[in-house]
Amino acid sequence: MTQSLASPGRASAEQILAFWDERARQFKADGRATLRETHLREVEVRAMMRRIGRLKPRTVLDVGCGNGWSTHQYARQFPGITFHGVDFSGEMIRYARQDAPPNCSFERADVTDPSSLPPGPFDLILTQRCIQNLPDWETQKRAIASLRGRLTAPRATETIARRGGALLLMECSKDGVKQLNQTRVRLGMEPIEGIEPWHNAFLRDGLMKRTFGAKVEFFCSTYMLLAKVVHKRLSYVARYLPAVGRFGYDRLYVVR
């Protein structure tokens, strides 16, 4: 598909499904099926692993798991945790089920249709660039509220359960795109066009904070500054560096 099919936030569900089914057929089990920027993908997975390790959930729902490339890594890293992966694309799920670790399972589901999702409850629900594939804020808001309703309720046992479950939404931010391009322009550089693709509607930090009390974490700020402002070839080194500052459009929204 090409960007001429639809503008950001205007794509139909059928167009988006066709796009991801084709990506699955193209890349199969490869991590590039859901993001071609492989170094950023590594940063995402390591950041999510750190949080899973810190929260110590017993059950995790990975929404928009794609071909399971990252879910498999989480399951192998944490064999005592049960992982459930769901995705809108049946082609993605077909590859996710291949060589899956014994502590994870996969099924097709639509985040906009609560009846299709596993009922839970789950100690932890995570997304990686899933909610931004929904066409507008109203649809995104309903989906997030539905996911939050599947979290483990607070109770007086164990670390994460004492506070109740958590949503870790690793999604792209419109505010972050604006911040990045303003920085480039101030430095005499051209803005990067097309960061928000035709099949996405990036989130706004203010709406996430006001509606869900989300905490915004800048897990890839160093990577974004070096790879997107200084020089793209620095992405190889930047993927290993700790995040410093509040920069970049790939952000983690923590909702409880």
List keywords for this structure.
7 strands; Rossmann fold; single chain; seven-stranded mixed sheet; alpha/beta; 256 residues
How would you describe this protein?
There is one protein chain. This protein is of the alpha/beta class. The chain has a single domain (3-255), classed as Vaccinia Virus protein VP39 (Rossmann fold). It contains 10 helices and 7 strands. The chain has helices at 13-27, 38-55, 69-77, 90-96, 137-148, 159-163, 174-186, 205-212, 221-230, 235-238; strands at 59-63, 82-87, 104-108, 124-128, 166-172, 215-217, 250-255. A 7-stranded mixed beta sheet has the order 3-2-1-4-5-7-6, sandwiched between helices. Helix 1 (13-27) runs parallel beside helix 4. It starts with 12 loop residues before the first helix and ends with a strand. Mean pLDDT is 93; it is low at 1-9.
Helix/strand layout:
Blueprint: H1 13-27, H2 38-55, E1 59-63, H3 69-77, E2 82-87, H4 90-96, E3 104-108, E4 124-128, H5 137-148, H6 159-163, E5 166-172, H7 174-186, H8 205-212, E6 215-217, H9 221-230, H10 235-238, E7 250-255
Parallel strand pairs: 1-2, 1-4, 2-3, 4-5
Antiparallel strand pairs: 5-7, 6-7
Helix pairs in contact: 1-4
Radius of gyration: 18 Å
Oligomer: single chain
CATH superfamily: Vaccinia Virus protein VP39
- Overall average pLDDT: 93
The CATH class assignment is: Alpha Beta
H/E series: HHEHEHEEHHEHHEHHE
Number of strands: 7
CATH fold name: Rossmann fold
- As a percent range, the share of helical residues equals 25-40%
Strand content: 5-15%
Indicate the structural class: alpha/beta
Number of distinct helices? 10
Distance between termini?
36 Å
CATH architecture: 3-Layer(aba) Sandwich
Shape: globular
Q: How can the largest sheet be summarized?
A: 7 strands, mixed
Which strands sit side by side, in order, in the main sheet?
A: 3-2-1-4-5-7-6
